Amino acid sequence: MSAIRLLVLGAVRQHGRAHGYQVRNDLEFWGAHEWSNAKPGSIYHALKQMAKQGLLRAHDVAPSTAGGPPRTEYELTGAGEEEYFRLLREALLRHDQKIDELTAGVGFIVDLPRAEAIDLLKRRVAALEEWRAEVVRHWTPPDGTPDAWGHIGEIMKFWVHSADSGAAWTRGLIERLEGGAYVMAGEGERSVEVLPEGVPNPYAAPGAD
Amino acid sequence: MSAIRLLVLGAVRQHGRAHGYQVRNDLEFWGAHEWSNAKPGSIYHALKQMAKQGLLRAHDVAPSTAGGPPRTEYELTGAGEEEYFRLLREALLRHDQKIDELTAGVGFIVDLPRAEAIDLLKRRVAALEEWRAEVVRHWTPPDGTPDAWGHIGEIMKFWVHSADSGAAWTRGLIERLEGGAYVMAGEGERSVEVLPEGVPNPYAAPGAD
DNA sequence: CCGCGGCTAGTCAAACTTGATTAATTGGAC
DNA sequence: GTCCAATTAATCAAGTTTGACTAGCCGCGG
User: Of A163, B85, B188, B189, which alpha carbon lies 20 to 30 A from A97's?
Assistant: First the structure.
């Protein structure tokens, strides 16, 4: 599964109850359509799929409020809540490429208590370091052959560079969190999160930009 | 399209003529199953799809050589050759996340003349710098509001970091190419590329690792 | 007052991906 | 000799993603 389930669960969760179009708008507000596969089709599909799997509860709502076809509102079930945190932790922990999952995880990181977030990120750094070592081990010529891989060695260099860069960024975030940045779970009210109802989306595809 | 078409076209091209299993083995030899969606199903699907689209020519071959069901060999058509270079240039040029495409592009970079490869990479650096500037512009509070984005600003920091890191790596590769590293297109025979026929794949999933 | 462009909300077919499974043949154990 | 396991090669069904499309309603220009 890509980042879509995490994004959709997180968006619904922040509203308490939301219909597809609201989710779609929030994701656009966060810029998610630029760094993830948050297309309408994927969002509605994820909503239906997760409702079928018992992660979301669906409510049919009268087709009135503002025009358009009848809509369905969703809200997280207990299982959905669990799955949300499972996906969130995984997104922050896993060092695999998938930039969209990490980005989504960062976007929801304040839903975790500070201590847990820091712990996850530290484990992320450790995983990155181990992965780096493994890449080097795997792609280094076993004995005398110095340059046997030719330009293929560039792939290794690229991965090593990515691992180092990712670890450096993660360490920076850890420091900021340890320094008390942001309002985490259980520390009071959050500030900016979703588009307040009724406010037009300032980032809704306006052509230029 | 993900990296799969580029990988498959490149693999078939290096053999001149190849069947699905050969392609699959090559990709595994390059470690592609670890950083791309190079699963058997995707590979065979891509071969058939591209044959249908006229990028590959299919030849049915007697089911003899080494056991297994009858196999089909493929070879690039003129259109396939064109598409290969189009995808290769795009992979090196585009700065979008998609790590697998860039990795595949690096793997085939020696199919380009040295001057063109360097030019593409320089344009890549320029694109990354422009993208970085745009991210900063887009996510910086317009006027007095200093920290309006809260932790969402972390997403911006992450992107900026990625852009800088990607640009640094690209500059390194440019330097190596300008220094004469590797044998590029039109500069003589290449060294390591595909698994020679008959040699067992030393990286074929051996369970542990 | 009527049509048309735009917004709200969602659906659908076609393409792609995944993981398991099938199928043909060879080689070794017994 | 023959039966089991491994290897070679490819297919399939189920699920996901994509991009284009449908459809209701509002407001405004003519």
Answer: B85
User: Would you tell me how many other CB atoms lie within 10 Å of the CB of residue A73?
Assistant: 18
- Picking from B87, B109, B106, the residue whose alpha carbon sits closest to that of residue B6 is B87
- Going by pLDDT thresholds of 50, 70 and 90, the confidence category of residue A188 is confident
Q: Are B36 and B7 in contact (CB under 8 A)?
A: yes
What whole-number distance in Å separates Cα of residue B97 and Cα of residue B101? 9
Where does the pLDDT of residue A67 fall: very low under 50, low under 70, confident under 90, or very high at 90 and above? Answer: low
Contact assessment for residue B73 and residue B23, using Cβ atoms and an 8 Å cutoff? no
Mean of pLDDT values over A99-120: 95
Residue B58 is encoded by which pair of tokens?
């299919």
Distance A176 CA to C11 C1' (A): 44
The residue behind tokens 């500030």 is A191
Name the residue type at position A75. E
Burial group, residue A17, by CB count within 10 angstroms (0-12, 13-18, 19+): middle
Asked if A61 and A111 count as a contact pair (C-beta separation under 8 A), the reply is no
Share of chain B above pLDDT 90, in %: 52
pTM for the model stands at 0.85
CB proximity A67–strand D (7 Å threshold): yes
Cβ-defined contact of A155 to B192 (cutoff 8 Å): no
Straight-line distance from CA A190 to C1' D4, in Å? 64
Asked if B84 contacts B103 with a C-beta cutoff of 8 angstroms, the reply is no
